[in-house]
Amino acid sequence: MYQTLTDYLPEMESDGFGKWIVDKDNDGTPENPIRLPYVKYSQVVRRFIHDIYSSQENHPEYGLNHYSDILRENNLEWGKESMQKADISVLDGKCIMALLVGAVRADRFNEGTLLSFFDSGTIAKWLLRLKELDS
Asked: What pTM, to 2 d.p., does this model score?
């Protein structure tokens, strides 16, 4: 059921995930305003994000558009610390998927959050749990 996502595990072992782009060329004048820093994600991460959204659409029975409610039902907050520290060994696939969707959505509100989940190994840990649930 989760193979589309768990197939990313080998690619994530060697991928750089992304990097921060900081404007060092402009001086902040009205003619050359400094652009805000942003994360440029790797191709693997961009495909992964696309597949997260596809999974959300292809499995409406999970109700992943209400990911924060799913997290709350499992005594988790939609926040980086709570999500990273979650004891995933007791969570079902629906909740793990809600964690993944929540991580992707968090990046829209706080640039770099998703990169942090990748760099810490949290995304890989969640995907390993989905792989375990599939077998």
From this structure: 0.91
